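Hey,

Quick one before I head out. I ran the complex with 2'-deoxycytidine-5'-monophosphate overnight. Inputs first:
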Amino acid sequence: MHIVAIDGPAGSGKSSVSKTVARKLGYGYLDTGAAYRALTWFISSQAKNLAAIDLDFLTKEFDYRISLDPDDYWVKVGSTDVTYEIRETSIGEKVSAIAGLPIIREYMRNLAHELVNASGFAGVVVEGRDITTVVFPSAQNRILLTASEEVRLRRRSAELPEGISIAEQITKRDQNDSKVVDFLSPATGVELVDSTELDFDSTVEAIIRIIERTK
Ligand code: DC
């Protein structure tokens, strides 16, 4: 199993870049942030108190499923398709608090390994905040995808209709997340790809070149 682990802050383009890299290589694509978002959705929908979240609740009640097919992306909790709902601002605002709980991070780490092992692909591009350091520290490729804050905010505002309020949201979420995971500077052995001056295609190519070197 070839693992390509990609970390990066919000707005670095890691989701769309990772998905395209996976498609080009014929690999699976795993968006690990979706599980944190789906759990946030599930906890909110159950009006569950955060203090009551334990391993028993996570293993028995959180029925999480995600597609690793880069051409057919969906996320489900039980039989509910939450693919779009988990992208809503209300989820984005609550997710950092949930992602900060150690019991949840440990559960998510195991979940990522299970999903990759059961994927049936020869390789998987796994994307998320602590993927290169905590979740897959021995991945064949470990890449930190960054861009200057200005460029990240601009890309996000272009993507989403809410415009400038997104800038504040992203900066705030990065600040909250960085209390939990250091995703802005590469750990030892992690290759930095700075996309500040690169367009989408060049960013994808830069990552494919890194992967080809090690294949
Ligand atoms: O990548 P994203 O914006 O969908 O991530 C949603 C949240 O989950 C974000 O606040 C960071 C957190 N997260 C994390 O802590 N570790 C991961 N591997 C993936 C996401």
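The first helix runs from residue 14 to 25.

Talk tomorrow,
K.
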